[in-house]
Amino acid sequence: MKKTIMTRFGEVEYDPSNTVLFTEGLIGFENLRDFIVMPNRKNGPLFWIQSVDDPDIAFVLTDPTNFFLDYKVVPDGRERAKLGIDKDGECHVLSVVTVPPDRKVTLNLMAPILFAPATNRAIQVALENSQYKTREPLPA
Fold first, then answer.
1. What pTM does this model have?
2. Which of 24, 31, 45, 69 is 20 to 30 A from 54, alpha carbon to alpha carbon?
3. Is 81 left (phi over 0), alpha (psi -120 to 50) or beta?
């Protein structure tokens, strides 16, 4: 059965069985667990996820390898357990995008999101000893 929420994008209808569950929330938003992926109106590498619990909260995400070809994050056993997948389970790495007023887009490569499509679960992980930053500028 479809549900409807009001968001900054207007009224959005979604199927609760298709929500992405962030088992531990996002860093700084630990209380928000359920998100929906917004339909992409434009072709391109960016897309929005919208909180089901708080209509004011939405994030722009992207696959960081579109911009950083050598960026790689491999989930460990503990992370795979939180995602509900085994060592062979498919896992996508995503980054939160920030677009400041000066339009100099950055990606959070220090705290990527791991998403398992088979379980619709996601977690955000903080990389230790990373060469990347939370606001990594796009390569020139």
1. 0.92
2. 45
3. alpha
